Amino acid sequence: MKITSLIKFSIFGISSIVFKRKKPILGTIILTDKCNLTCKHCSVNNLTAIIYPYEQIKSEMRLLYKRGIRILFFCGGETFMWNDGSKNIRDLVIEAKSMGFLIVNVVTNGTFKIDLPEADLILLSLDGDKEKHNIIRGDTYDIIINNINTATSGNICLYMAINQININTIESVCNVAKNMKNIRAVSFNFHTPYPGTAELSLTASEKERCCKVIEKMIKRGYPIFNLKSAFPYLINNTFPTPCHQCVVMENGKLSICGRCIDIPGLCKKCGYFFVAEYSLIFRGNLRVIFEMFKTYLRYI
């Protein structure tokens, strides 16, 4: 991370804490819900299969920038399926950078060739070892591993949602993150039980066991992009929600924190690590703030 960007984020954070502001800093734009996979834990793919046009996405980017957003995520569906004529995901990343966004990240399932050096991070879903990942996402593990190996830049961060199927494969994913080229780190989430996926949820004791494994791997020097100081809040869902510093834009609709805010009761079962981390940071939790600086300087 550039020092100038770090200073800007620090000023934003201090003013948010001191003046108890709810101004957002992180924004996500949903490019499409079209996806080539039907993953067991996902309930938001191919509901419309609409690919939103370039000018609409560009307009939404401008809107988020005017609201003070400086960290931008592009999500799907599958982001690498997005196109509008000759425009593709690379054009969106380049456009976002030219607008002034300081960090631009892309989320993908990794089944398409990865040639996107312009992104700060490519968050690529790998949900366990080969057996468990393929149970969740279909026979895609080998394709993804090959695409990581042949990627044109080392800006990949693995992205794993821990659920009842892959709960015992955390160390396996950590090993992939540590030993494969082009991977900068791994980031974990707990399964958030969207309608129809509640059977994949973890109990508090299971979450605690997972956090102990992740913390053990952090202590062993594995590249993990999570803040262990937030783990106690994640285990029992005691972090404040929604996170007002994060917003999601989909087809012109702006949601605070995420799309799940519209589903009654789901906020209390949130499994997104970054939501807990940001909520705690902007409420002045010093341990989380200190760890955030160390982690972000290392991996972004």
Q: What is the residue-averaged pLDDT?
A: 92
What's the CATH architecture? Alpha-Beta Barrel
Largest sheet: 8 strands, mixed
Task: Assign the CATH topology.
Answer: TIM Barrel
Our estimate of the beta-strand percent is 15-25%
Radius of gyration: 18 Å
At the first level of CATH, what is the class? Alpha Beta
Instruction: Kindly report the name of the CATH homologous superfamily.
Output: Aldolase class I
Folded structure, characterized:
- By secondary structure, this protein is α/β, with parallel strands linked by helices.
- The chain has one domain: Aldolase class I (TIM Barrel).
- 37% of the residues lie in helices and 16% in strands.
- It has ten helices and ten strands.
- It has helices at residues 3-19, 54-66, 89-99, 130-137, 141-149, 170-179, 204-219, 231-235, 273-281, 286-299, and strands at 26-30, 71-75, 83-84, 87-88, 103-108, 121-125, 156-162, 183-190, 246-250, 253-256.
- The strands form two sheets. Strands 8-7-6-5-2-1-9-10 form an eight-stranded mixed sheet, with helices on both faces. A two-stranded antiparallel sheet has the order 3-4.
- Strand 7 (156-162), helix 6 (170-179) and strand 8 form a beta-alpha-beta unit.
- Helix 2 (54-66) packs parallel to helix 3.
- The radius of gyration is 18 Å and the shape is globular.
- The model has no long low-confidence stretch (mean pLDDT 92).
Q: Brief description of this entry?
A:
37% of the residues lie in helices and 16% in strands.
Helix/strand layout:
Layout (H helix, E strand, L loop, with lengths): L2 H17 L6 E5 L23 H13 L4 E5 L7 E2 L2 E2 H11 L3 E6 L12 E5 L4 H8 L3 H9 L6 E7 L7 H10 L3 E8 L13 H16 L11 H5 L10 E5 L2 E4 L16 H9 L4 H14 L1
Parallel strand pairs: 1-2, 1-9, 2-5, 5-6, 6-7, 7-8
Antiparallel strand pairs: 3-4, 9-10
Helix pairs in contact: 2-3
